[in-house]
UniProtKB/TrEMBL annotation:
Topological category with respect to the lipid bilayer: Multi-pass membrane protein
Name of the protein in its database record: Histocompatibility (minor) 13
Protein location: Endoplasmic reticulum membrane; Membrane
Gene: HM13
Alphabetical list of InterPro entries matching this protein: Peptidase_A22B_SPP, Preselin/SPP
Pfam families tied to this protein: Peptidase_A22B
Length: 365
């Protein structure tokens, strides 16, 4: 779970390897060292803009992903069916995530970072196109002109023949979906060629929204197990080692949202970024989406638990940013998000006398 990171704005006091062994008393070398190790110091306005934008971008996929999660289970398209996370899945997830994270860390230490990121870029290029296309689809349905004929297409791959024929891929789409794919491909090419932060964020937002929409917790207990396990995972890998921060900075893929702190000075060509990992959006987001579905199952007009957990997420993310800005150190966002997102709704359920109902009757949410 990549964390909010401010390491890019903290001065680096170590000499770069390219200047090691040179005469440090040489004025030219001293000037080169100072120019190399000097880091950008963000203005208060730039910092506020960057953090405010990260918070806003984090809220978008949670809010709209949660709304879409309510109806996605009713879809007849198999590609839109949710993936249910059980208690066993939740218990194993932190272990699997830790192995994956440490594996990536070793890869970046052993192999060339350039080639690894090239392979990852191509992988996320394909995934990003599909995710962004799926994200755009409902919007395209609303704005697509009614006088343009809609044609149906089917992409079918099978294995074998006759009665032994087995479907490998069966993807149905129409003209609107095709337009979404074309637009998404343009964004993907832009990302591959330029690695621009806007293209990165478009893919990142699409990944996050799809995650919140399509990953369903089977009940609140499972959500508590998942968030609790990843709470420990996030704290350990950020505070206990340098693995998390190293991978987050080395990994050139749209697995994090970024926003430049020097946007006011350099415009769209800015290069000093604050970042927020997608895991810190999706993991609390699927729990918040579960509470929205619980609200719907109560058949009441209010959405008490959804809005409570949504506000709790804002509070937890705000705490993360405040602590990080105060202590000038990268923070595991789940350290603050998990207690807030679980604690606030539980307190509300206790006050309303619905705690037992929340934990027992939400199995089909």
């Amino acid at each position: 779970m990549a964390d909010i990171d401010q390491a890019s704005v903290i001065p680096n006091e170590t000499s770069p390897p390219a200047l090691e062994g040179l005469n440090a008393t040489d004025p030219n070398v001293t000037e080169a060292v100072n120019a190399t190790v000097a880091k950008f110091v963000a203005t208060p306005e730039g910092t506020a803009l960057a953090y405010g934008s990260l918070v806003f971008m984090a809220l978008l996929p949670i809010f709209f992903g949660a709304l879409r999660s309510v109806s996605c289970g009713k879809s007849k398209n198999s590609s839109d069916m949710p993936e249910t996370i059980t208690g066993r899945d939740a218990a194993r997830f932190p272990i699997i995530a830790s192995c994956t994270l440490f594996g990536l860390y070793l890869f970046f230490k052993i192999f060339s970072q350039e080639y690894i990121n090239l392979l990852l870029s191509m992988y996320f290029f394909v995934l990003g196109i599909l995710a962004l296309s799926h994200t755009m689809s409902p919007f395209m349905n609303r704005i697509f002109p009614a006088n343009i004929p809609i044609k149906q297409y089917q992409l079918l791959f099978t294995q074998g023949s006759g009665e032994a024929k087995e479907e490998i891929v069966n993807y149905e789409f129409d003209t609107k979906d095709l337009i979404c794919l074309v637009i998404s491909t343009v964004v993907g090419v832009w990302y591959i060629l330029k690695k621009h932060w806007i293209a990165n964020n478009l893919f990142g937002l699409a990944f996050a929204l799809n995650g919140v929409e399509l990953l369903h917790l089977n009940n609140v207990s499972t959500g508590c197990i998942l968030l609790g396990g990843l709470f420990v995972y996030d704290v350990f890998w950020v505070f206990g080692t340098n693995v998390m921060v190293t991978v987050a900075k080395s990994f050139e893929a749209p697995i994090k949202l970024v926003f430049p702190q020097d946007l006011l000075e350099k415009g769209l060509g800015a290069s000093q970024f604050a970042m927020l990992g997608l895991g810190d959006i999706v993991i609390p987001g699927i729990f918040i989406a579960l509470l929205l579905r619980f609200d719907v199952s109560l058949k009441k007009e209010t959405r008490t638990y959804f809005y409570t957990s949504f506000l709790a997420y804002i509070f937890g993310l705000g705490m993360t940013i405040w602590v990080m800005h105060t202590f000038k150190h990268a923070q595991p966002a789940l350290l603050y998000l998990v207690p807030a997102c679980i604690g606030f709704p539980v307190v509300v359920a206790l006050l309303k006398g619905e705690l037992t109902e929340m934990f027992r009757l939400c199995a089909n949410c």
